[in-house]
Amino acid sequence: MEIDQMETFLAVLTYGGFHRAAEALHVSQPAVTGRIQALEDSLGAKLFVRARSNLSLSPAGKALRPHAEQLLRTVALARQAVREIQPSAGGALRIAASLSVCTYFLPDVMKDFQKANPKVMVSLRSGNSLQVLKMVLDGDADLGFARSLNHPEVETTTLRDDPLILVGHPAHPAAQKRRVRLDEVEALPLIFYDMGSSDWTLSQGLFRRAGLLPTVVLEVETIEAAKRMVERKLGLSFLPQIAVTHELRRRKLVAIEIVDAESLHRNLDVVSPRHRPLTRDAQAFLGLLRTAAAVPTAVVNIPAKRRGARRRK
Q1: What is the pLDDT of residues 32-51, one digit of tens each?
Q2: Can you give the residue range of the structural domain that contains 126?
Q3: pTM over 0.85
Q4: Is residue 200 within 8 Å of 213, Cβ to Cβ?
C-alpha cells in the first residue's frame, strides 16, 4: 500500500472515473488502472463497483475512504512542516478567482498582503466558477474565490453577500425616482453581460418568474463593459455590488430599488482542498480577505432634493 495508490484511489472517486483521474494526476490511464489494481491486490478486496457507465465505491472502498483521506492529509502536513523550516528566499501562493473578484475585490487585499509579505510570489489566475473549482481540485491553486462554490472535496467558507443591484446614470429618470416596480423596469432599456453566465441567468430569471420580458438594448461580454455603457446613459444594468461600489460613492452611478421583487443575493465564497492543509501564506491571505470582506459596502443614496439644496447653498 503506497501513497500514490491512495492518492489515485481518491482521485478516481473525486472525478468519477479512471480517465478523468488520469488527466487530473497528469499520468496515463493505464497507470491509474495499475495503481488501483495493486491497491486492491494488497487489500484483497475490490474497491469500486462498475454499473454501466457509473462507478461507485464497494463496501471495502467505503471503509477505506476515511483512512485514505486522513493518510493524505497527514502526508501533506508532514511535507508542509519540513518545507516551512527550510531556508528560503520566499514562498509562493497560487490563487484562482472569478474575473469580477480579481478585478474588484482582490487588488486592495493583494496590496496589503504584498506589503506584509514582500518575498512571497503570488500567482493569480482567473476563470468562471467551475474553472476556479477545477483548479483547486487539481492542485493548481491553493485558494479559490468565486460565487456559490460547493464540492465534497473542498472546504467552502462564505466571505460575504455580493448581490446584483440595478444601477443607472444619475440623470436617468428611473435613477432619479430611486424606487421602481419590476414592470416599469421591463419597459426600460437594459444592458446585460456574459450571456448564459450565472449572473445573466439570475437577472433574467427575475423577469421570467414574473411573466415579463425585459427590453434588452445591448449585450456585452464583461461587467466592466456593461458598467461603462451605463455611465454613458445607454441603459440600466444589473451589476455586482462589489463592481460598482466606487461609482456609487462618487455619484457616477445610482442604485435603483425594485420595490416588488426579491433581491438578487449571491455568496462570495473561498474554497480550499479538503485534504491539503493551507500553507502559512495562504492562511495569512485568507485572514486579510476576511478582514476586507467584513467592511460594509452598502451605499445609501442621498435623496435628490437634499443634494439640490446643498448645491444652492
Answers
A1: 999 999 999 999 999 998 87
A2: 92-160+267-293
A3: no
A4: no
